[in-house]
Structure formats: structure tokens, C-alpha cells
Amino acid sequence: MDNNNSQLVFIENEKVVTDSLMVAEVFEKQHFHVTRDIESLDCSSDFNASNFGCIYYKDSAGRSQKKYHLTKNGLMFLVMGYRGEKAAIMKERYIGEFDRMEQLIKSGGFHVPSTLHEALRLAADLEKDRMLLETKITEQAPKVEFHDKVLRSKELLTVTTIAKDFDMTAIQFNKLLQSYGIQYKQGGKWHLYDRYVGKGYVDYVTYEQGTTLMRWTQLGRSFLYDFLKGKEILPAC
User: Fold this and answer.
1) Residues 6+ apart with CB under 8 A from 86
2) What predicted TM-score, i.e. pTM, was given to this entire model?
3) Mind telling me which residue stretches traverse the membrane in this protein (predicted)?
């Protein structure tokens, strides 16, 4: 990876840009997937010419390889389809870096290192930012994994299944939800309080013997996760 990639954005031909190598690293994608995505974008030729620039560089083996420079608008057009909490974090990070760099240029505060000491200081600061960002992503990884698992599944869930996410028994979890005013027990069965009814959080299953029981949907499971997260109760998975 070339030296420009030590930071998210940089100055190229008097424009604030990033490049496809950095995008691939940040969003944890193969570089050829990113270049493929850029080349298949359904944007106008004028927009493409203004916001994407194809250049070639030497890789670590000395081979000539293709990459793209992207403006802020080009980056946003490219990554608008990248989903997930990690992607959202990196989009915000990128937007912040573009805005910061553009503001520095406008205010005359942008300074290109002119000595080895300044260059090393800048590299150290950028590395510190990168490590802080990686720490944040690592801390959020269990939450991201949980949400990904929820979205992948479409089945109705018993409270026992959801309780296991929090390392609880069904009895403990039901009492927890009751204590927070989410559900109540009547006639030996659990029901949602009115303010949560009709939101798609639960469905009802009737068995052959005529018993009808409340079951949680994936939307409901996600709701419970977000609600309990606000109470500092996180899944154990």
C-alpha cells in the first residue's frame, strides 16, 4: 500500500480525496471488489469524471496495479449501499475526515510536513487515530454480530431462545420484561402492554390442542436488544 494510505483522506491535484485501496481496507473488502463496484456504478459520465480518477501504482512486488481516487461525493455514491453498523461508523468517520480536511484548507490551517520530524509526528498522530478507531470497532463487534444474527433469521422465537442470548432462563427473562413494563401475565399467558401492541414485535402460534402462545419476531428480538441495551443489559453472545 502506498504512503497516501497512512490516512483516510489526502490532497491530490488540489482536491481532498481518498483512494480505493483505503476504502477496501476501511470497509474490509477485497480491493478488486471495490474497483468493480466503482466501475459498475450507475452514475452519469460527468459525475464519474468529476469524482473518480483511475490511476496506476506499483504494488509491493513492483507490478503496475490500478486504483481509483475518489472525492467526498464519489465516496458517498459508492458506499451508500454498504450496510451494517461497522459500515455506518466508517461512513461517519470518512465524512468527518473530509470535512476536517476541507475546513483546514479553507482556513489556511492545512500544513504539509516540511521536515522529517514533522512527518514522523503526523504519522504518529494518524496511527493513534487509527488505533482508537480499531478499538471502537472491536468494542462494538459483539453488538454488530448480534444484529447480523438477528437479521439473518426469519423464524418466530420462544422467550427461551432469546433469554439464552442474555445467559438467562426463560423465567428470569420474562420477569425482567415484566419489571420494565413490556409484558404482563394473564390467564397463565404472557401479553404485551398496549403501547407495544401492533408494532410487529410478537405473533401468536396456536397448537393442535388449541393452546395459543405469544412468540417473538425478529423485529421484536431486535427491539428487546435495543431496549435492554439502554438499561446496560447486553447479550452474552
Assistant:
1) 27, 28, 137, 140, 144
2) 0.42
3) none
